[in-house]
Amino acid sequence: MHTTNDKQLPDTAGHGRPCHGAADARRRVTKSRKPARYRFNQYRYDRWDTSRSVILEGHFGSDDLTPLHDLAAPDLWRLPADIRHELRHEFYQRGGASADWDKKYAAQDWLYADVQAFRRSRVDLAFDDSEIADRAQQYAKVCTRIVALEAMQDYAAKLGIPAPQAGKPASRTRVGCIHRLTDARWWRAALRRYWTGEGEAHLRAIGFVHKRKQVYASDHMVKCRRGRKARDKALLQSLEAVSDQGEQLELWDVVSKSQANPALRRNELMVRLRGFEECSLAAGHTAQFFTLTCPSAFHRTHVSGERNARFEGYSPSAGQRWLSAHWARVRAKLKRLKILIYGFRIAEPHHDGTPHWHMLLFCAPHHVAALNTVISAYWLKDYADEPGAADHRVQIKAVDPTKGSAAGYLAKYVAKNIDGFNVGEDYETQNAQAIDSSERVLAWASAGRIRQFQQIGGPPVGVYRELRRIRNPVSVAAIEAARVHANVGEWGAFIAALGGIGAGRQGAVTLWTAHSDKPNRYDEPRGQQTIGLVALAGRICTRDKIWRIQRKRNNTGRSDSALLPSLGPVSITVRSASCVPTDDKSKNSIDQAQFRVGIIGLGLGLPRAGPRIN
What we know:
The chain is α+β, with helices and mostly antiparallel strands and 614 residues long. It contains 20 helices and 12 strands.
C-alpha cells in the first residue's frame, strides 16, 4: 500500500473482493484529531496517511470508508448535490486537509456550522414554491391547535421564523399576532422571506455567486423568481376588477399599465431624474456623481473567481444595511450643516452580489466641497486601514454639462436594474447582454429585499401619482396648478408649483389621510389611509369607487369557484370626488369622509394611459 513510506495499498481485502474506495485511498491524507461531536463507526478501522484530501475510516472490503468532509459534517449528504460540491470545495480551500492543524480544525468547525445553517434555512425547500405553500398550510394548522400565543411564537422560532410581537409596531395586537400565526398566507410570505433569503445568502457565502459562475444571484434564486412571476401572471389573468358603478377591467391589463410594468417604471424614474436636473439648472446648482461601496469584508469573491481572504461572511442584505446606516449619518450631518441636497440613488450588485450605490446629487456650488468631505469621511470611518479603501470605496465625479446631461449619468444604471433596455453588454458579466442579466439583478434584489431606487429630497412621489388620478380640472387653485404639470409628466414644473425644491415634503399640496378603525385581515385597525389631496384652500377626494377583485366568469356567466379562493372587497367609499372646504371640522373623520383603499393586496399602481381604476 502507498503511504508516506511508499508501502503498497492492497486492491482486495483478504477475501478476494475488490477494495471499496481503493482509488480514493491512494490519495494523501493527514491524521487529524476529530472533535468529540464527530462519531466514528463502531468497526475496527485503519487510517491511511496518503495525500491530505480524505481520512479513511474502516477496513478494506467494507462500506465504512469515510471522507474527511463527511467526518467533519455528518449531515453533509442531506444537502442537494450542487451545494455539497461547493461546500466540499470551500472546505479544502479553507485548509481542511492542510498540514496546519489550526487551519484544519477551523475548516472542520466551519463546515459543520455551515451545513447546520443550510439545514436550518431548509435550502432543500427554500426555492420550491409549491413545497413552501404546503409547509405554510401545515404550520398554520399546527398553530391553530396551540392555545397560547407564546407557545406559537416558540414554535415559529424553532422553525427559524421570527414570530410577530405585540406592540412591534405599536398598532400590532396580541389578537393580530395569533391571526398571523394561524394564517397560511402569512406563513407563506414568512417562509419566502427567511428560508429563501437565507438560503440565497448561504449559497453566495460558499461561492455560488460570482462573475465566472452565477453572476449577481444563484440559478436557484433566478429560477424560483421566474416561476413565481409566471404563477403571478397566470393568477392575474384569471381575475377581473369590478366597480360599484358597473365598470369591469381585466386585472392583467391594469397591472400592465401600472408601475409594475418595467417600461413604465423606468420611464417615470427618468422623468423624475430629468425634472431634478431642470430644478438644478433653474437654481444654479451643480451635480456630483458618487459610487459608494462596502468594505472588503463584505465582498465574497474576486473578479478572478478566487475567494476574498478578507471576507467576513456578510450577506448582501447586511451590506445594504451598512450602506444605509452610513448614509443616515451623512444626511444627519448635512442637515446640521444646513446643506440642501436632492437627487437619486440606485443600489445594484457587484458580480458576487455585494451591493454598491450610484448616487446623483445636486447642491449649491459652494457646498460641493463640504458634501464630498462629509461622504468620504463617514464612508472611510469603518475598516479605515483596509488597503485601497481610499481609492475604491468612494469615487466622486463632477458632472460636466458640456459632455452630457446629469440624467444621462444615471440612465444606464436605471435601465440595467429594471429591464436592460438599450444598455447593451453588461460588463460585470461574462459578455452577457443587460437585457438578459437584468433578470438576475431583480432576483438578487428580491432575495435580499433590497430597495433598488430611492429619491433623495424633493416632494413625495405619492402626491405626483395621486394628482395623475384626476382627469378633469378642479376648483382648488394650488391643486390644479400642480395637476396640470403632473398630468403631462413635467416633474420639474410640478416641484415649482408646490413651492420649489427647498420646500421638500412640506409643499403647497400634500396627501390627505385619515385614520381608519376598520379591521384588516388580522383584525387590527387599518390606521392611516389616503383619501386624496389637501391644500390651504381646500381638499380633493380622489378615491371614490368601490372595487372588487373576482374571478373571471365562464361561458355560463358564473365564476369558476374551483379556480381561486374568494378575495372579497378591496376598497370602500360612499361618495364621489369633491372639493371640501378647509373649515370642515370633520375632515379627519373616517366615518364622514370614507374612501377607496385601493387594490393594495396586489400592489397595483394606477395606469397612465388606457383604463384606470379611480
